[in-house]
Design goal:
About 35% of the residues lie in helices and about 25% in strands. The chain is of the alpha/beta class. The chain binds adenosine-5'-diphosphate and magnesium ion. The site of adenosine-5'-diphosphate has 10 residues, from helix 1.
Length: about 230
Amino acid sequence: MLNISDLKVSYGQSEVIHNVSFGAKKGEILAIMGRNGMGKTTLLKSLMGILPSQGGRIELGGRDISTMEPYMRVKHGLAYVPQGRMIFPALTVLDNIKTGLENSKTKTIPDDIFALFPVLHEMRHRRGGNLSGGQQQQLAIARALVTDPKVLILDEPTEGIQPSIIKDIARVLKEIRKMRDLTILVTEQVLSFTLDLCDRLMVIDGGRFTHEDLREHVDANRIKQLLAV
Ligand SMILES: Nc1ncnc2c1ncn2[C@@H]1O[C@H](COP(=O)(O)OP(=O)(O)O)[C@@H](O)[C@H]1O
Ligand SMILES: [Mg+2]
């Protein structure tokens, strides 16, 4: 579904992502783990077209999207939940979700969104800024899902979320995969969440992948070592 080959991303003269290649299948949940500063956000922003790449190819469902503007990548089936969630605090929950519809054909919120996130329905007239961290994360995911993406990309979705709520986020992401049969690409630092969620795990270090395992083969202690400073 998603295929990246030889991707390079730089800030000025400083290359941060070095010839990275990987892919994710339809319906697969792929986690990319790495410490702060290893290149997770840079990688995801370049997939979305928010940051330019200096080389390589990004294919979505067999189509080269490398040169497309971000909104065109969304039209072709990418959706993005940024680090820190970036919801609009002054807008209501409903209006926050509707901002995700700007580039969609339908302009209506799909029915299954509120089935997935009943709390957002209850709170639909509240301002986004008045929601808890976990609820804001649900809101950011809901906003990304309204375009009916083929690939959902999330950047550290558990950051700043209470441990008791982290399990709920893993559950809802698995539910989304089941309902929509979409591909999920997620970056993380929380190993328990990743192990609860993913089918496959990769470790990024200094802008390169240094490790890869299917979920059933993951040695948690080895991954902890790789993530230790
Ligand atoms: N806007 C920027 N300008 C220059 N360097 C940046 C910028 N954003 C990130 N970097 C650098 O790129 C590297 C990767 O950062 P980032 O992708 O944010 O890592 P992560 O998301 O894994 O914490 C870091 O060394 C960081 O300092
Ligand atoms: Mg980051």
